[in-house]
Amino acid sequence: MARNSILGVFAKSPIKPLEKHIRLVTKCCNQLTPFFAACAEQDWATAGKLRTKISKYERDADDLKRKIRLELPGGLFMPVDRADLLELLTQQDKIANKAKDIAGRIFGRKLVIPETLQASFVTYVARNIDAAEKAADAINELDDLLETGFRGREVELVEKMINQLDEIEDDTDGMQIKLRSDLLAIENDLNPVDVMFLYQIIEWIGDLADLAERVGSRLEILLARK
Amino acid sequence: MDILLTHGPMLVIMAGVVGFFMAWGIGANDVANAMGTSVGSKALTIKQAILIAMVFEFAGAYLAGGEVTSTIRKGIIDASYFVDSPELLVFGMISALFAAATWLLIASILGWPVSTTHSIVGAIVGFAAVGVSPDAVEWGKVLGIVGSWIITPLISGIIAFIIFNSAQKLIFDTDNPLAQAKRWVPFYMFLAGFVLALVTIKKGLKHLGLNIGSVDGYVYAIIAAVIVAVIGKIFINRLKFDESAAKKTHYANVEKVFALLMIVTACAMAFAHGSNDVANAIGPLAAVVSIVGNDGEIAAKSAIAWWILPLGGFGIVAGLALFGHKVIATIGNGITHLTPSRGFAAELAAACTVVIASGTGLPISTTQTLVGAVLGVGMARGIAAINLSVVRNIVVSWVITLPVGAGLSIVFFWGMVAIFT
Predict the structure, then answer these.
(1) Chain A residues closer than 8 Å to B367 by CB
(2) Contact at 8 Å (CB) between A132 and A29?
(3) Nearest CA in chain B to A73
């Protein structure tokens, strides 16, 4: 008797799961702060636990991503383009993947951030996580966007958030350049292989903000259509 | 003729029982569609929905069901064709009822979303065209009815689109949506009350023996609507808002105001449904009663016997009371993201369309009209996801219902003719 009703017309909304997904992604990123703190103290036991936690969140996000995709069949009539929505989801998921890669690489090599870089490195990580958080804030506006039919003030609000996200990403770019040159200054005193990986890690952390920015632009495209 | 004299009372009882059963089926099954959006968007609990449905379905059936009943009774068939053999019309109407009720039962068991309106119209056309003669059908009127099935979802879709967009402009896309909601929601309540009151006064009170002039009618309708709006406003002012919720999701409080509005539109929906769908059960019954009551004379002008509309109303309420709970419970679960602000737009648009159609005597499908309204809100980008394959299934079931209803009714008709003659 369940199908004999008007309510079968309403399909499961992908918006709440999408918001849940980005929350998982930021949870994953946020673990990087204590992870790097543990690494700085060379407390590898704690760092290992945190890395496992990051992997777990990343897997959860992956599972949720798959579930959302399966629950979004082609025959749906939605206020936003289905392809845009799925692309947004893919971009969100990449942030978590990157966080997992970073933790994995650091922990695998027991890579230590040089003492002199430590302070600016911590702020750099924090700023990149800020970007992910800002992207999550913007995604969390999706249900309010639905309330307002994807137009008007709410759209302006989200666009403002996306602009802020862009600014944060700019910040991280500047910080990255600074970190690289600081590393260049001391690289002769370090193990060459470690230096290679340090450059890579700096780049990967910067990718967090890049990817977060890309989530913002996908959201912008989503809003611009129709 | 003799058949009617000897078996007259039995035939009336037969028609009465099947008619009641049909009304019961409409109550048990169809009402879920009318009330589903209110329950689904959590504006009403199941108990509240059943209570509202009982009161307003009955009111709708009794106060505004007369016009559509007349159409079903004598609008589809050319009565002059049956002057010499009125018993055929009696048999046919009973067969049509049997056919529609049987189909409703089968479809309910299988979980198909059929329209009772389509099955009864298909059944009546079927027995008349095949069992008697194609000339016995008023094809022009049938075409009009079928045309209305295409046009009404379209109209309700457009109205829903406009209502939803107006709510966006007036309430959601403003600096203070909550204050705007408090200000404008009573106007929507006014609109719902006005349309309902107007159709009731214009079309319903006539057969109750009250005649109200056309200007007076508008005045009374406005008075009734103002009363509805004022009561609504009082309830809105008594609402308690959660200040902390305003920060997290700032539309949560706005939706609370719309939930109140949805109670009004749910009443409207139940009323509209009662006014239109009761005829599917009692229209044929009314025809049988009038022919038997006039000793076989097919009176063109006779009024509907006083007890028929209440019988249909009670049938619907009985169905609701016994099974409505279960049916609404199965559909009320698991629905996400249908907030009262969208539900109201769809319901108000559908209710207005159905009530107006009831006033003009057009038998239309409530579910179909509601689906049209939902799509209208969807077009306005108001609903997260609409399952088009389900919409397609619903449309297909409508199309199938016509020939099936006709076929069943032809079989029953031949059976009855064979038994009684």
Answers:
(1) 6
(2) yes
(3) B387
C-alpha closest to that of B261 among B154, B157, B163, B376: B163
Choosing among 3.40.190.80, 3.30.470.10, 1.20.58.220, 1.25.40.340, the CATH entry for A13-224 is 1.20.58.220
**Number of domains, chain B:** 1
**Chain A / chain B CB contacts < 8 angstroms:** 145
User: What's the complex ipTM?
Assistant: 0.84
Range of the domain at B11: 2-420
Residues of chain A contacting B336 with CB distance shorter than 8 Å: 10, 12-13, 16
Annotated domain spans of chain A? 13-224
The residue of chain B nearest to residue A5, with distances taken between CA atoms, is B33
3-state secondary structure of B326: helix
Of A5, A15, A75, the CB nearest to B33: A5
Q: Please tell me if residue B166 touches chain A, with a CB cutoff of 8 Å.
A: no
- Assess B319–A contact: CB distance below 8 Å, yes or no: no
Structure tokens at B418: 């064979």
Concatenating the DSSP letter of every residue in B198-246 gives HHIIIIITTTTT----HHHHHHHHHHHHHHHHHHHHHHHHH----HHHH
What is the residue-level pLDDT of chain B in tens, covering all 421 positions?
A: 566 667 778 888 888 888 888 888 888 777 777 787 888 777 888 888 888 888 998 888 888 888 888 888 878 888 778 777 777 888 888 899 999 988 888 887 777 777 888 899 999 998 888 878 888 888 888 888 888 888 999 999 999 999 999 999 899 888 888 888 888 999 999 999 998 888 888 776 666 666 667 778 888 889 989 999 999 999 988 887 776 655 555 688 888 889 889 888 888 888 888 888 888 888 888 888 888 777 667 665 566 777 888 888 888 888 888 877 666 665 555 555 678 888 889 989 998 998 888 888 888 888 889 889 999 999 888 888 888 888 888 888 888 888 999 999 999 988 888 887 7
* Cross-strand partners of A76: B387
From CA B273, how far away is CA B196, in angstroms rounded? 12
List chain B residues with CB under 8 Å of A78: 384-386
| Nearest CA-CA partner of B79 in B7, B122, B30, B128 | B128
Contact list, B393 vs chain A (CB under 8 Å): 3, 8
CB-nearest to B251 from A12, A13, A147 is: A147
